[in-house]
Amino acid sequence: MDILRGAEAIAAQVREWRRHLHAHPELGMETEATAVFVEKILKEIGISNVRRCGGTGVVAVIEGRPGGGCVGLRADMDALPVNERNDLPYKSVNAGAAHVCGHDVHTACLLGAAQLLYNLRSEFQGTVKLIFQPGEEGAGGAEKMIADGVLQNPEMQAIFALHVWPDLPVGTVGFRRGAILASAQAIEIRVKGKQGHAAHPHRCVDPILITGHVICALQSIVAREMAPLDTGVLTLGKITGGTAGNIIPEEVVIEGTIRTLSKNVNKQIVEAAERIVEGTAAMLRGSGSFKAFPGLPPVVNDDALFDMMQESFRRNFGEERVRTLPEPSMGGEDFALYLEHVPGAHFRLGVGQEGRDNFPLHSPDFIADDGGISYGVAGLTALALDALA
Ligand code: NI
Questions:
Q1: What per-residue confidence (pLDDT) applies to 285?
Q2: Is pLDDT above 90 for 283?
Q3: CA dihedral of residues 357, 360, 364, 366 (deg, nearest 10)
Q4: Are 299 and 76 in contact (CB under 8 A)?
Q5: Residue range 125-143: average pLDDT?
Q6: What pLDDT, on a 0 to 100 scale, did the predictor assign at position 355?
Q7: Which residue segments constitute the domains of the chain, with CATH numbers given?
Q8: How far is the CA of 78 from the centre of ligand 1 (A)?
Q9: Ligand 1 centroid to residue 350 C-alpha, Å
Q10: Are 299 and 181 in contact (CB under 8 A)?
């Protein structure tokens, strides 16, 4: 069966689903209407094994012939708190919410793949698990679905997901071996001194001076401690301290973020930052504490599944439709949390229009051109079938 032709045959329907979702965006874990819509379409397709997971998440299982393993396909469903600035016929009708990260396209593509895989259920052995996830944009959706058992009944041997990409033209897909998205971890530093009069510094411990040293010393981690070919970012984006120019304050609080492409580098930066904050503050008579909040690991494609995906896309789409991305994105994705338990791979779907400057993801002007939506549907379908074969 020609998977791409099958996807093209239902593309008009998939586009209609996508445009309905686009017009009715919902935020975070509050994706009830979206979940109800997804359940309705799955039932219309004929899939009866559909359950809720993590509140507004939906999990559906398509049984092929008996035996074989289980492969997961995951789509995120949530929108962003943005007022859309486009004048599309299917523009968001919900003020303060818009699908400017393309999750409407992801959900529609997975519904399309559900339709194709259901039609093909007598032709493959094993099980496909469809995961419709809320709360990707910082609301902990993957974590909540994992806590509610999305990884069990049945367990998956591989998992795949896609993300729209405005820098790739419609009718193409893109991927990359190894890391494709970065880790994202929030940090907080507290520098404690001793408060007093600005005129009598010798009777105080100045946390502002210490903070200056801490900031500079932290930059030596990326410059001098990390291997030159490793990738890492340590950004301090917010500093709070002091109340008046004639007072040496008690404490300064610094907030920041760490981004890396490997867990080891992440660990290295965290350990070094802790040592530098504590050591620098102690050296200057103060005290410092460093806290790294639980974050997202990087999205790293499994090598064997990447090889399979590369071969599958070239065979199904033709060489000219498949692009190798020159570099990963330093953005984060909670798909990484599934990859802590199940090997998987992530690819990008072209939604950019050629010959124009496409607005980036999360911009109020972002438009995902759905002309290439059949490549998303076919890509997910092909990955499930090839991983089960
Ligand atoms: Ni996104």
A1: 98
A2: yes
A3: 60
A4: no
A5: 97
A6: 87
A7: 3-182+297-388 (3.40.630.10), 185-292 (3.30.70.360)
A8: 9
A9: 14
A10: yes
Q: How far is the CA of 100 from the centre of ligand 1 (A)?
A: 8
From ligand 1's centre to the CA of 311, what distance in Å? 26
The rounded Å distance from CA 99 to ligand 1 centre is: 9
Centre of ligand 1 from the C-alpha of residue 137, in Å: 7
- List all residues 6 or more positions away from 219 whose beta carbon is below 8 Å from its beta carbon: 234
Q: Tell me, in angstroms, the distance from the centre of ligand 1 to residue 102's CA.
A: 6
Contacts of 101 (CB under 8 A, 6+ apart): 79, 80, 137, 164, 361, 362, 366
DSSP state, residue 329: B
pLDDT tens profile 21-47 = 999 999 999 999 999 999 999 999 999
Residue 361 Cα to ligand 1 midpoint, Å, equals 8
| Interval between CA 365 and ligand 1 midpoint (Å) | 15
pLDDT over 90 at 228, yes or no: yes
113-122 residue pLDDT tens: 999 999 999 9
Instruction: Give distance in angstroms: CA of 165 to centre of ligand 1.
Output: 10
How far, in Å, is the centroid of ligand 1 from the Cα of 103?
6
How many angstroms separate the alpha carbon of residue 41 from the centre of ligand 1?
Answer: 22
pLDDT single digits (tens) 318-367: 999 999 999 999 889 999 999 999 999 999 999 999 888 899 999 999 99
Structure tokens at 373: 């939506």
How far is ligand 1, taken at its centre, from the CA of residue 15, in Å?
A: 19
pLDDT above 90: percentage of residues in the chain = 98
- The alpha carbon of 256 and the centre of ligand 1 are apart by a number of angstroms equal to 22
d(CA 2, CA 318): 12
Six-digit token string for 142:
């993957």
DSSP state of 208: H
Confidence of residue 1 (pLDDT cuts 50, 70, 90): low
